[in-house]
Amino acid sequence: MQQTGTKTIWQVIMASSAGTLIEWYDFYIFGSLSAIISEKFFPPSNPELAYIATLATFAVGFIVRPFGAIVFGRLGDLVGRKYTFLLTLLIMGGSTFAIGLIPSYHTIGVLAPMLVLILRLLQGLALGGEYGGAATYVAEHSPNNRRGYYTSFIQTTATLGLFVSLAVILITRSVMSPADFNNYGWRIPFLLSVLLVIMSYYIRIRLQESPLFIQMKKEGKTSANPIKESFGNKENLKLVLIALFGAAMGQGVVWYTGQFYALSFLQKTMNIEFVQSNVIIALALLLGTPLFIYFGSLSDRIGRKKIMLAGMLIAALAYYPIYKAMDTIGDVKQKTELTELYKIESNQSKNDEGQLVQQTTKVHTYSDGSILRISDGKPELTVDNTRMIMLVLLIFVQVVFVTMVYAPIAAFLVEMFPTRIRYTSMSLPYHIGNGVFGGLLPTISTILVTKTGNHLAGLIYPIAVAVICFLIGLVYIKDNKNMEI
Fold first, then answer.
1. Nearest to 423 by CA among 132, 71, 20
2. How does it sit in the membrane (predicted)?
């Protein structure tokens, strides 16, 4: 087992993963709470438009990730991997904490969404520099024949970050009333971020620099201009484009369809109750996470290309029937209502201004055990345990596709580029693929559904991108598994 000083590869992995997990947690808290955020920070006159605006603000964080990749990738290739991802950790944590402090739209008006947008930009820039540093750092400590296996632990952090964000939200929600959570409790997951960041910073500050980078620096072989070498050199630019359009682009849409779009579909299209929808996603993620390690290890034996492209193709073929089945489970028009159990509930709750308001809820019960509650025109469907398990399994299958495309990609990207410009070269295609093609998916798909009225219209985008990426990757990708880096 390769070592750096007294720290084994496992210590390197744990320290790198802890920080990366926290950064993903910070980044995804916003998306996990998008339904509530749309009510708090945007004008209440048009809830549908407010939700789309929230998703667009969420997407902005992804769009700027490539710029973060260039800025911090250059810094990582010039100064070192360690200090660069220490800086990104602090920027991400500080931005997340600050979002939890912003007053609502009712209090400060248009300044609220403006502040959220600025902080979301900072989050995106920070994440753009984080992933490439962590993946490069672990890969440069790993033995050649186990690089896919060891870097796959970094790959778990994105999904685990989403899982942790959902878990924190659910725990916070469970210890207070729905009204209190809606009024102020949703801020707690944002504010907790500062404690996690302090802990992770303490772990990371004690790490040593990458041995390959130290050796290269001693020999005076570091790049004087990583950006020019990465994108001004014709041969390297060709590799960047292949990495983007033959791998990262498809991986990005598969990742976001199987997790974030799945959550959005449950909450906004199927109207599944908030807690139940988050539990469904969390269980599917928990079941699927070990497969990152499996497919990462398998890529060391059979190659990265086969697994990634297979994941894209199978996902593209399976999405329509999967989401059709999900939509059917939530369609109350296909359910038989037990009219004798219909009732109207009335209770009081506080609004954002602290005023008591009367709330009337209509409760519909169906023969399959589903219960639909409609309060102030907002429907919330709670399904029975059997259908909940069915939804968990349908999303778990999508998570399997995620693990196939995502587990090998860190090792794949590291092996494409030379050490002197690796941080910069691999970060840009990864963050364009994930940040632009993947990050825009919830917004584009939601708009397609809204405009067409077809619940499945949002799948057009991820299916098309995955198929195009599969074809390009099939022709142009060369597998460099286990090569010397």
1. 132
2. Multi-pass membrane protein
